[in-house]
Amino acid sequence: MNLQAEISKMLNHELMKGVTLLDLFIFVAILVVAVVIAKIVRLNIRRALKEKVPKTTLVAIEKIAYYTIIIIGFIIAIPYIGFSLSGLLVAGGIAGIVLGLATQTVVSNLMSGLFLMAEKPIQIGDGVSIGDVGGVVKDIRVLSTTIRTWDGIYVRLPNEKVFTSNIYNYNAHAARRFEYKVSIAYKSDADKAIEVIKNLLEEHPLILKEPAPQIFVEELADSSVDLVVKIWAPSSEWYGVKTEMLWKIKVALEKAGIEIPFPQLVIWKGEET
Amino acid sequence: MFGKYGLNDEIKENGVEIRIEGKGKIKRYYRKAGGDEIEKIVSAESGNLYVVPVEPVNLPKLGVAEHLLIEFENPYIIEPSIQDTFYLKFPIEVGIFLVDKKDVERIDIFTMAKQKYTLYGSPEQGIICRWWKSEIYHDKPEVKKLHEGIMRVDVKNSYREWVEVKKMVFRAFDMKIFYNSHAYMHTHVNILKKTMAETAFNSRKPKNMEASIDIYEAKGIKKLEKKFVMEWGL
């Protein structure tokens, strides 16, 4: 009985104005629990996202979650050591407004970065056009995305800009289509030209069997019969195939005796009567 | 053609020439196949050269496809709840490996078979596959040994209705290729629905055959899944 009374007396001993030893214990206990919870959450985030997001991003997400939980724990615990939460909130609110104004862009980029990681419209290695920048995605970080443009220039785009721009991802799908316009002379045989082009495309390994290429007469133009050639290729290889095939088509048509005409204008000179 | 050779052996068969020339440590590797020739400098004192059939998805460029799609000359129709066995031809690529006690290194790869790729599925969700067309044979067919191999297909229709099959898709990661004078694979195909099937490979070594060097194991790429699910039509 005496011991209980002694402990009770000790715990209720006021260390400073309005703060007992018990309050101090509760304060410390809340902080310890917050740290433990933060560590567990950090560990689970690491396990869940290890294979899904880049390492630098993972570290950032872990830190945000960890310190958010610690801060919440601190806010819950602080009244026990005699600090007024309302006072703290006022001070925190003012500081928050100042900080918010100062870091508005950073937070906006951060949130955009998190949404980009969740939505995944682009991935590292994809060929993309974002706004007026085109190139290969080299890195996606929490605040920014880096792109190597087609001509080899390093561009860092804030994630807010990436998130709010139109994104064209050239590698998102397995295959993509491109087309040529091939003009032949009126006197040439269009069916034969189509056959020659079809055979040529069949020989190229990276021109896909399915979806099959389409070749047809698109227009009877002023000086030529215009054929259109639509070709599907693997998205990773289409550019190489596109740069290779047009000249090969021209050579194959010429070899088959099919004329590719220059623009012509026939002028009839009226006879005087 | 397929098998294990010494570093000084010269291989000549059906228009293919492979040799390593030179005495001492620095040697010259030479290979000619069809109109294609290649030379490399090899620094080696010991080891062996292996010429073996490998998964047909490496040429003309590695990374384009990881699957092989075999289209049938004529559709194959199978009645409900039965099993059947038939044979197909599949394209091969020939890998040349330098092998010593510690390591395996692929130094060259070529193919005599027609190369063509196709899309299985839709452009949005589909996959790029190496394409090949084959008849269905009830007995082991004769093959051009440097162009194609024999694939045994054990097919089972687990669905309650008749199913028509026009093609089969196999994952290169799963392939188990064996060889003697020709290349050989043994596959299992389980038809689950009218538009869905599972394809897998039998890894048991047949009698009088050798296992080819597994290109993915040699590169240290793990095989996580053993079956491929054809979910975009048969």
How far apart the termini of chain B lie comes to 35 Å
Reported for the largest beta sheet of chain B, the result is: 7 strands, mixed
Question: How far is the N terminus from the C terminus of chain A?
Answer: 141 Å
In spatial order, strands of the major sheet of chain A run 6-5-4-3-7
Helix and strand sequence of chain B: EEEEEEEEEEEEEEEEEEHE
Output the radius of gyration of chain B.
Answer: 19 Å
Oligomer: heterodimer
Gross morphology of chain A is rod-shaped
Please bin the fraction of helical residues of chain A: 40-55%
Number of helices of chain B: 1
Please give a structural write-up:
The complex is a heterodimer of chains A (273) and B (234). Chain A starts with a helix and ends in an 18-residue tail after the last helix. Chain A is 49% helix and 21% strand. Chain A contains 8 helices and 10 strands. In chain A, the strands form 3 sheets. Chain A has a 5-stranded antiparallel β-sheet. Chain A has a 3-stranded antiparallel β-sheet with strand order 8-10-9, covered by helices on one side. Chain A has a two-stranded antiparallel sheet with strand order 1-2. Chain A is an alpha+beta fold and 273 residues long. The model of chain A has no long low-confidence stretch (mean pLDDT 85). The radius of gyration of chain A is 35 Å and the shape is rod-shaped. The longest helix of chain A has 29 residues, at 21-49. In chain A, strand 4 (133-140) and strand 5 form a beta hairpin. With 234 residues, chain B is mainly beta. Chain B contains 1 helix and 19 strands. In chain B, strands 8, 13, 15, 16, 17, 18 and 19 form a 7-stranded mixed β-sheet that branches. In chain B, strands 1-6-9-10 form a 4-stranded antiparallel β-sheet, with no helix packed on it. In chain B, strands 2-3-4-5 form a 4-stranded antiparallel β-sheet, with no helix packed on it. The chains are: A alpha+beta (273), B mainly beta (234). Chains A and B meet through strand 8 of A and strand 11 and strand 12 of B.
